[in-house]
Amino acid sequence: MTGLLIHQAGMALFQDAGRPGRAAIGIGRSGAADRSSYELANRLVGTAPGAAALEVVLGGLEVQAVDGTIWLAVTGAPVPLLLDGRPEPTGAVLVLRPGSRLTLGVPPNGLRSYLAVRGGLDVAPVLGSRSRDTLAGLGPAPLAAGDVLPIGDEVADEMRVDAVPAQQYDDRPVLRVVRGPRDDWVRDAALLTSSTWTVAPDSDRVGVRLAGGRLDLADPARQLPSEGAVRGAIQVPSGGEPVVFGPDHPVTGGYPVVAVVVDADTDRLAQLRPGEQVRFVWAQ
């Protein structure tokens, strides 16, 4: 059976479109952090929407085709690609013949890259999805060296586009936000948009932690019952440093949500790397 042999796993996870519609029973959506890049990778190789792909953080992945030829594409953070030692571009359809190796280096900008294969990756779904939810521990285990990933048959279309422009990410992006239900719980919500924030090192798929300022609570002793949470919600813990929820966020939260990143900008949020700066602006 045709498959991908993992020589170096890096920080790679299986991801797809996630588990929508299950928050009422305590299960978050999860899914690809940068949905547009994930979807583009599948489209390039003619794979059905929602098929499983690999989400790779800061490169470090090396794969080899075994027992057959594999068509694949890499999108998102523009990692240097070496196919049998030969440089190849991201955003293009690549052919791995049996024995060929593809190595993903460290991208100059951005954080997450997506590797999709024609037919998708045939791993067992959990609760209807092949996404790894890092908070709940649901879904296929993280990749390890020596794994062989079977190629599926989820083909939707011919490969009509050979390549697309490689994605580049500008410095200090500006993300749009709308006011949250608890914006009056902080003394000065305007500080959210007037400050420049820095992505903290302990950011992950659960949430992007921000440093460089404080949003002080108007009444630190005031208690808030747990409320439903969404991707992009900006919570303010007692310490005052905001946390922006990512795809693996909990389904409820007990800290006030002062703003929410508009859904269209959460893909850019997913490409912020530790130490990078970001600003917010109120959506019009």
UniProtKB/TrEMBL annotation:
Which keywords does this Swiss-Prot/TrEMBL entry list? ATP-binding, Hydrolase, Nucleotide-binding, Transferase
According to the entry, every stretch annotated as the Carboxyltransferase domain falls at 24-284
Q: Which GO terms describe its molecular function?
A: ATP binding; hydrolase activity; transferase activity
This protein's record includes keyword Amino-acid biosynthesis: no
The protein's name in its UniProt record: Biotin-dependent carboxyltransferase
Q: Which PANTHER family match?
A: 5-OXOPROLINASE SUBUNIT C
Task: Kindly give the InterPro entries that the UniProt entry links to this protein.
Answer: CT_A_B (IPR003778), Cyclophilin-like_dom_sf (IPR029000), PxpC (IPR052708)
